[in-house]
Each structure stands twice: as structure tokens, then as C-alpha cells.
Amino acid sequence: MDRIPILKMGDCLLVTIQVDMHDQLAVSLQEDLTDQIAKHAARGVLIDISSLEIVDSFIGRMLANIAAMSRVLDAQTVLTGMQPAVAITLVELGMTLPGIRTALNVERGMELLRGYIQKDDELQENDGSEE
Amino acid sequence: MVLKSDVHPIVGSDDVVRVRQVARQWAAELKFSLVDQTKLVTATSELARNTLEHGKGGRMRVELVENGARRGIRLTFEDEGPGIANIELALRDGYTTGSGLGLGLSGSKRLMNEFDIKSETGRGTTVTVTRWK
Ligand SMILES: Nc1ncnc2c1ncn2[C@@H]1O[C@H](COP(=O)(O)OP(=O)(O)OP(=O)(O)O)[C@@H](O)[C@H]1O
Ligand SMILES: [Mg+2]
């Protein structure tokens, strides 16, 4: 069965969704990502959807699930490259993607991710010194 | 007036991908704007998945329609599944009998220019939507 490749870059994972996904492929990606975050103790996940021509409620739900699961596993998620037509349609569909942070492109997304990870580390250090 | 018409089965999750591509092709042929194409394809995805998952499979009819000077694409999703007992409730944002978000029907209605749903419990469901150019 085909699967969407997950790239490891330092302590982050990078996924580029390039195909018109059928539902099972989206479910597999969600499972694979969760496994990989845990396995590599990844701190950040970047999902690039610049090639995606639509995001429907199913893919939207998958993206929200990934972000929620990452959070539980102490990783941050950033979504990059959403096409304007996709964004307009998503809003009209009624999906708000709560808790998902977005950036224009992979480069900006990586910067954003770095910032979040650093802030997370600082927060954790502060927590430690108070105890 | 119907200028052209085609029927595609929706019996597996690959068919959901296939009918999305069909909707895209027809919309591109009619030179829909990118935003209109995206809306049509997204609604197609939602309604085809409903046909498959709630309606236990069915088909999509795609038609090139003309009304005076206007042309558009009409899609009809048809199944012989369990039907919908309360249509008003099913059309509400967030209402689902499954594990979804309950946005498929209400969202598709917003994405299309015309929306019609007929359903009879035990008989099946037919959803007809049109997007004009
Ligand atoms: N073809 C159908 N046959 C039978 N019931 C249907 C059909 N289409 C929709 N329904 C019913 O209407 C409800 C609402 O549908 P809708 O597409 O809005 O939400 P959903 O499919 O449950 O979730 P989502 O589409 O957001 O993933 C469904 O939960 C289901 O009970
Ligand atoms: Mg649905």
C-alpha cells in the first residue's frame, strides 16, 4: 500500500502532501506521524499542503487530529502553503482548523516552528526552577 | 436544458477520488474560476463520501446544464441506503450520526448555488446541487 513519506530534519518532521489523497491514505499518514513523533522524540511537525487542490472536512479533521496528537506528544505543528482558493473554500465549508498554526511557505513555517520550540523550552526551564 | 450527462459509480473510497477528478475536469472545461472549481470539487468530495459512508454506495450523475445564457454543472448523488429521518436536523452545522464534523451537507449547501435533498427512510437519498458559471 502506498504511503506519504515523512522526512526527518533534526528534531522536526517534514511531510509534503502531493497527491489527491483517498481517505485511507490520510488515516495512514495520521498513524505514521504519531509513531514517528514518538520514535524520534520530535519537537516539531511541518505539513506542507501547497500541492493540495482541496481540503474537505475529512482532510481537515485529519490535520486537526495530527495537531492535537502532536501536542500531547510535546511537539508543535505548523501547516504551510495552503492555496488561497483552498482557504476561501475551507472557511465557507465551515472548517476553522482550531489550534493549527499556518505559514505561507516551508521556510517561514520552519522559522515559526523553531520559535515555538524555543518558547516551549524556556517555559519548561522556568517551570523547573520554580519547583 | 441538459447539454451533456455522465454517470459514475460510488462504491469504494477510490471512487470518491475519481468523482472529485471528474468534477474538476468538467469545471475546468467550462472555464470556472479556480475558486469556483475548488468549491465544486470540495462539495463533490463531501457528498460522494456521504453517498459511500451513510448511503452504503450509489452514484454521481454529472450534467452540463444551460439556463438562458447561463451554463453550469449539476451533480446528483443518489443512493438506496437507509435514508435520512430528519433532513432539517441533518442540514444543521455540526450534526452528525457518525464520527464526522457534521459539515458535509451544510457546507456543501453553502459552496453551491442550488441545493436540493430528497430522502425517504429505508429507500435512499438523492442530493442535487448546481454551480453556475
Ligand atoms: N446519503 C446519506 N444517506 C443517509 N444519511 C445521510 C446521507 N448523507 C448524510 N446523511 C446523514 O446526515 C448527517 C449529516 O451529514 P454531514 O455530511 O453533514 O455530516 P457527517 O457526514 O456526519 O460528517 P462530515 O461530513 O463533516 O465528516 C450524517 O451524519 C448522516 O446521518
Ligand atoms: Mg459527510
Characterize the structure shown.
- The complex is a heterodimer of chains A (131) and B (133).
- Chain A has 131 residues and is α/β, with parallel strands linked by helices.
- Helices cover 53% and strands 17% of the residues of chain A.
- Chain A is built from 4 helices and 5 strands, in the order E-E-H-E-H-E-H-E-H.
- In chain A, helix 1 links the parallel strand 2 and strand 3.
- In chain A, helix 1 runs parallel beside helix 2.
- Chain A starts with 5 loop residues before the first strand and ends with a helix.
- In chain A, 31% of the residues are buried.
- Chain B is of the alpha+beta class.
- Chain B is 37% helix and 34% strand.
- Chain B has a 5-stranded antiparallel beta sheet, with helices on one face.
- In chain B, helix 1 packs antiparallel against helix 2 and helix 2 runs antiparallel to helix 4.
- The longest helix of chain B is centred in the N-terminal third of the chain and has 20 residues.
- The radius of gyration of chain B is 14 Å and the shape is globular.
- Bound molecules: adenosine-5'-triphosphate and magnesium ion.
- Adenosine-5'-triphosphate binds next to helix 2 and helix 4 of chain B.
Strand fraction band of chain A?
15-25%
Along the chain, the helix and strand elements of chain A come as EEHEHEHEH
Q: Give the CATH level 1 class of chain A.
A: Alpha Beta
Shape label of chain A: globular
- Overall pLDDT score of chain A: 92
Q: Which homologous superfamily in CATH is the superfamily of chain B?
A: Histidine kinase-like ATPase, C-terminal domain
Poorly predicted regions of chain A are none
Structural class of chain B: alpha+beta
Q: Looking across the biggest beta sheet of chain B, what order are the strands in?
A: 1-2-3-5-4
> What's the domain count of chain B?
1
Using the alpha-carbon principal axes, give the shape of chain B.
globular
- Output the CATH homologous superfamily of chain A: STAS domain
Q: Main sheet of chain A?
A: 5 strands, mixed
Order of helices and strands of chain B, N to C? EHHEEHHEE
Bound molecules: adenosine-5'-triphosphate, magnesium ion
